[in-house]
Specification:
3-stranded antiparallel β-sheet, single chain, Transcription Regulator spoIIAA
């Protein structure tokens, strides 16, 4: 279950638990009040602390906290403050997303036109955002929450089984409007709007996939990388080039991203496919 901090109540959490939900992801983004105010979020660090306690009281121990590196006005000091809260609360799973320019958001559209509204003028530069991310990698590793995927960190045993299905190309079913599904060979998407979905739930958009391409750009998101023997000759030259450039490295029988490769992962993945991987949290 994904939830916005400030929306949890003992009754709601109890209903989730009775329905079988055993993991909750909180879209915290930041624990710093100035940063939260600029994103329109109404919660505070104290509210997150209280709601995590409610989850644990109800028997839900598998809790994820989302953070964003690169929020308007964010500094190294303020990002460290958010990481301090993560350590204080003992969250067993943390997702750290570097701010992306998305034309579907007000901030993203403003950044694309080089404007200054919605805090666009105060968004940290790319180098600073990369520094914040690497700060998170180091800090979380030191407190026992190592990275297992580009944006995801977990104590051993608390990795997201839900998201691992995407990165390991395992079949999954999505229900409702705009939901995505995969059967191992073909992907399909339900109608985007609820109205369209109710009118014709079978009107899906189907896409055949290239399994070798997906195996590369999805598997390389994982810290463990992919088995070199499982890759076809079609990508041999690309892999050798990235090995030479220091973006990939060999680890036993596997190939994986280096630390530098993680920071340039979009450029690496673009060599394997023209399509993006499924969005996940």
């Amino acid at each position: 279950m994904e939830a916005a901090p400030g929306s949890l109540t003992p009754e709601r959490i109890r209903a989730w638990r009775e329905a079988g939900i055993n993991r909750v992801s909180l879209g915290v983004q930041s624990f710093v009040q100035k940063e939260l105010a600029r994103t329109g979020r109404r919660h505070t660090a104290e509210i997150v602390e209280r709601e995590i306690a409610l989850l644990r009281d109800a028997g839900i121990e598998s809790i994820n906290v989302d953070l964003i590196a690169g929020l308007p006005g964010q500094t190294e000091a303020s990002f460290r403050e958010s990481l301090d809260w993560v350590e204080r609360l003992g969250a067993p799973h943390v997702s750290v997303y570097m701010l992306e320019v998305d034309e579907d958001s007000r901030l993203g559209r403003e950044l694309l036109v080089l404007g200054s509204r919605y805090g666009a003028a105060d968004v940290p530069d790319e180098d600073s955002i990369a520094d914040f991310y690497e700060l998170a990698v180091d800090r979380l590793e030191r407190i026992g929450i190592p990275r297992y995927e580009i944006s995801n960190f977990a104590r051993p045993g608390f990795e997201s089984r839900h998201n691992l299905k995407y990165w390991k190309r395992e079949p999954y079913l999505g229900f409702g409007s705009d939901a995505h599904s995969f059967d191992g060979t073909e992907r399909w998407q339900n109608p985007e709007s609820a109205t369209e979905y109710v009118a014709n739930p079978r009107a899906t958009v189907r896409t055949l996939v290239d399994p070798q391409s997906e195996k590369c750009f999805l598997g390389l998101r994982l810290r463990e990388g992919v088995e070199a023997a499982a890759l076809t000759d079609a990508f041999e030259d690309v892999i050798e080039r990235f090995l030479g450039e220091g973006l990939l490295e060999r680890a036993g029988s596997r190939v994986r991203l280096t630390s530098r490769g993680v920071m340039l992962s979009n450029e690496v993945f673009a060599e394997f496919t023209g399509a993006g991987s499924p969005a996940s949290k």
